[in-house]
Specification:
The protein is of the alpha/beta class. It has two domains: 199 residues, Rossmann fold; 94 residues, no CATH class. The protein is 35% helix and 16% strand. It has ten helices and eight strands. It has an eight-stranded mixed β-sheet, with helices on both faces. The longest helix has 19 residues. It is globular, with a radius of gyration of 19 Å. 47% of the residues are buried.
Amino acid sequence: MTWLYPELEPHRAGMLVVSPLHTLAWEESGNPEGKPVVVLHGGPGGSCEPFLRRYFDPRRYRIVLFDQRGCGKSTPAGELRDNTTPALIADVEQLRDHLGIARWQVFGGSWGSTLALAYAAAHPSRVSELVLRGLFLGTASELEWVNGGAVAPLAPLAFAAYRDFLPADERHDLFASYVRRVLSPDPAVHLPAARAWTAWEDSLCGFPAVDVTTNATSNGHHARLEAHYFSNGCFLERPLLACVEELRAIPAVLVHGRYDLACPIATAWALWQAWPELDLVVVPDGGHTVTTPSISRALVAATDRLSRP
């Protein structure tokens, strides 16, 4: 994808102790004197992959990536204790202060968009702009769409594998049954369930959609963190749609694929209805993944525009 910036390596990295239990892995790349931007990865349970540096002009941006609690290179890996959205919001602030940054652009996709909005609502004076992708607001209807299987008619083969992994007597409430298994302390129980959960989600992320029926390489951390967050209402203290007044003055772009099966466009539309100042960019041939060419092109266009004084 020629519109992405060239690969680059971090010039600074470290581990930040944010609690008696958790330490975050962080890095900086780009221009140390440039416009600060922090990247919030998806999940919960994902990580900041190196290719995410390429969405920002390294001559103009000071690019900060970090792995959230329990994720990627942060320690302890996969840890659920002391892992909530308010804790993650506090971590973003602690990292900003640690790096000596007064305000920064916040870039987040999928779960990263949820955390970006929650952070911006809590600390609007610290956010210069928001760049969001594949919006997820953490609502019960969104969880029912994916993890409850409401989207099944659009991905029937992958859904059959997701449903049929469970014994017949556990299929009356797929979400609750999966949460119970994925959060089991027994790896013999939680690991196969986590792999089935992750395969089902993966099948919804591409465009065109791909029927993924196994995920043999998953270590289970991603699914366990998702189950932990999703079964607790994403630990949101209030609905994000109720936070619009705190967000309204922040310049914001939302890039969303029209054919996003993981996070349906109705969610983006609901936010835009409440927040018409938001620049909603609907990608007509886009799904959910950040690497979809048309979506990545739209994100680079947004960060380029917002990099200018």
